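Aim 2 progress update. The chain analyzed this quarter is reproduced below.
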Amino acid sequence: MASYDIRIIGDPVLRQRARDVTEVDGALVRMVDDMIETMYEAPGIGVAAPQIGVQKKLFVWDLGDGPNAMINPELIESDGEWTFDEGCLSVPGLSWEIVRPKRIHIVGRDLDGNEVSYEADEFEARMFQHELDHLEGVLLVDRLDPDTRKEALATLRDLQIGVDRKRPGGLGLRLQ
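Predicted structure tokens:
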């Protein structure tokens, strides 16, 4: 297995909507295995395909009960409100309090093509919503109120300038 590089904020692929998966074949299964390895190496609890530069509607996760994958997920319903400090592998080292629905119902397909359905709350619901956001081209900073978002982008720019000064040629990333 080979792991992927996690795409970082500023990479345009993170702002594009992913496309439906139309076929589950050996190549897709291998990619999912590699995504799981990438998630563990990061370390993280979930990785969406756009985070590795692939515009497919799928993500992997592990909340401690083993790795899972969901293809073409859809949020069916949500309820309540829950605020929690949330981070992202594509926005490394930073986190913010984000308000999301407390309970959700999500459906999709597994790697065998079977329909899967999850009713989740709090942390598990947050993880699903976070990965769904990646499939829609939405990043964590987009969930912030306008003033906090402005501060967050300024912080990210300052961090980027520090990285650029240390590396010849810099990273060439643009923040949105």
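The beta strands are 46-48, 58-61, 68-79, 82-88, 91-100, 103-109, 115-121. The radius of gyration is 16 Å. These observations will guide the mutagenesis experiments scheduled for the next reporting period.
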